[in-house]
Amino acid sequence: MVDVESARGLAPTADPIVTLDVNGRAYSVRLDARVTLLDALRDRLGLVGTKKGCDQGACGACTVHVEGKRVLSCLTLAAQCEGREVTTIEGIAGPYGLHPVQRAFIEHDGFQCGFCTPGQIMSAVALMAEGRAGSDEEIREFMSGNLCRCGAYPHMVAAIREAASAGGDDANV
Fold it and tell me: Who contacts 108 (Cβ-Cβ below 8 Å, separation ≥6)?
């Protein structure tokens, strides 16, 4: 277990210690009860792949998985995730390289500026696991909570369709 405060040389505070299981690794960190999962991941654990977009749950840039279900980490308190498995974009690649959705996004140019890409990929992996990638319309519907300012949606749908047809709902290939 990594004690983040000790590793950074920080003095202990009165805040409770929260143990977070992120990407298969346990982290022990002192957190105010009001700290969001997004802020804990980025500011305390140094996992900056998850992006802070609107910070109001409207854009999907902060999408991560908690117990295999997609959540908006800007609306989830870190303390709520104690004892639950959290997976971020840094944790979805398998032992043989990139996740099929990551590979498909590259092959189909499913990103432009890249800011929304981690949240888009995390949402896509979850919708495949939920069995909701049966048609382009279904993909668009269940990806509708993830916004892209660049408008790369057709490329993303093609990438998700390809990954779903090649790997089904296997989220750990």
Answer: 155, 156, 158, 159, 162
Element spanning 87, H or E? strand 85-87
Can you give the C-alpha Rg of the chain in angstroms? Answer: 16
Token couple for 55: 């910070």
Q: Per the confidence metrics, is the pTM higher than 0.85?
A: yes
Query: Which tens digits make up the pLDDT trace of 4-53?
Result: 666 666 655 579 999 999 999 999 999 999 999 999 999 999 999 999 99
Helix (H, G, I), strand (E, B) or coil at 103: helix
DSSP-H helix ranges across the chain: 4-8, 37-39, 100-107, 117-129, 136-142, 153-167
User: CA triplet 58, 60, 65: central angle to 5 degrees?
Assistant: 130
